[in-house]
Amino acid sequence: MHEFNYRxxxxxxxxVPLPDIIKEHPTPFYLYSHKTLVDHxxxxxxxxxxxxxxxxxxxxxxxxxxxxxxxxxxxxxLDIVSGGELYKALKAGxxxxxxxxxxxxxxxxxIEYAIRKNIFAFNVESVPELIMIDSVARRLARQPRVALxxxxxxxxxxHDYITTGTKEKKFGIDFKTAEDIFDNTNKYxxxxxxxxHAHIGSQxxxxxxxxxxxxxxxxxxxxxxxxxxxxxxxxxFGIDYGVEKARTAEDFAAxxxxxxxxxxxxxxxxxxxxxxxxxxxxxxxxxxxxxxxSGKKFAxxxxxxxxxIRPSLYNAHHEILSVVKLRSKPExxxxxxxxxxxxxxxxxxREFPGIVxxxxxxxxxxxxYGFVMSSNYNSRPRSSELMxxxxxxxxxxxxxxxxxxxxxxxxxxxxx
Length: 416
Ligand code: LLP
What we know:
The chain is an alpha/beta fold. It has two domains: 4-31 and 277-405, Beta Barrel (Lyase, Ornithine Decarboxylase, Chain A, domain 1), CATH 2.40.37.10; 34-276, TIM Barrel, CATH 3.20.20. It has helices at 18-24, 34-47, 65-73, 83-91, 108-117, 127-140, 175-183, 208-223, 249-260, 273-276, 310-314, 402-405; strands spanning 4-7, 10-13, 16-17, 29-33, 54-58, 77-80, 99-101, 121-124, 145-149, 192-197, 230-232, 266-269, 280-291, 297-301, 320-322, 330-336, 345-353, 360-363, 384-389, 392-397. Strands 4, 13, 14, 15, 16, 17, 18, 19 and 20 form a nine-stranded mixed beta sheet that branches. It has an eight-stranded parallel β-barrel with strand order 5-6-7-8-9-10-11-12, surrounded by four helices. Helix 5 (108-117) crosses helix 6 and helix 8 (208-223) packs parallel to helix 9. The longest helix is centred in the middle third of the chain and has 16 residues, at 208-223. The relative contact order is 0.16. Bound molecules: ligand LLP.
């Protein structure tokens, strides 16, 4: 459920008609519904209530300060993946003791920054990283909390690029190595290894892989006689992009809770897409409709792969709606952007009732991994981000300008 619905023939966000927003704000833009965002966070909170987990929104899915602030205000923590995300998380007002930090490549200075800020925990992805955290901690005379990120070797039934929990992937630590670490915690006396983490992938629409991974981890904990204070099972709850069957938060909870309800340790979750995905759309304008002699029709819009890369990168399906309902006979279109690559498309061979130039389209479920993955490719300024909250439309990030495109560049004296 989300708050982007037709009233009559007009698409609205929380009852604000999109044509009104378009009059004030040039396309392309991302538009977020505050209500949808918070509702989805609360769906997870309610479904997992029995275990009272710490829910750390994975801010790599959407790191807009207002998006993070809205969730932090509801009690969320944040899952971060870089020094930049730590900086933004603190700017969003997230208490440091609600921050968890994963990444296979944390640098020494990022580690120092996070230790100084006293985050809740590092999710450590390798022995060399653990040694690095231990040595930075010794230098700073601190003892940061650490969870070992396990690689449980479980296939997550999702796109290969976003499968993370199988043994050939770069993420996490295998069970044997983890056991060695737990047997030799004295070697890492400057860190407190009290948690276990796992994240097996993203956009997982089946509940079973979570259960398989958790069972393997519980087995490991029992066999190696480890006492932990928290188990972080990562993110990955999949959403319905219009082609797959959506699972509800209750579906995931029903599978996971029975495995953990008698355990003493705390549960941590890191959902990103489930919270932000349906809460955002990308609105664009149809610039031209081009019919070729071969019979193909292209709707050329003013948003491209630099704005939303998911279709190009993962062949991802996003539902596309017309801002004002179209009534003519459906035809097949490739909905493409202005970028100079054939891989620049938002949809291929999509049935659509007669698209017309000058009309507006909404790319649905673009709230997660949308703006955050956008770029300046083809020297296109990144779009604005807007948020509807309590019936008001707010710019939560201004569109970039041409000046922004050259920020930081310096003309060499040879070319002056
Ligand atoms: N925790 C960790 C350690 C992660 O690496 C991720 C996502 C999450 C949590 C959140 O996963 P979620 O609940 O959002 O599935 N760009 C891709 C998705 C990449 C996911 C990376 N890690 C996409 O557009 O589908």
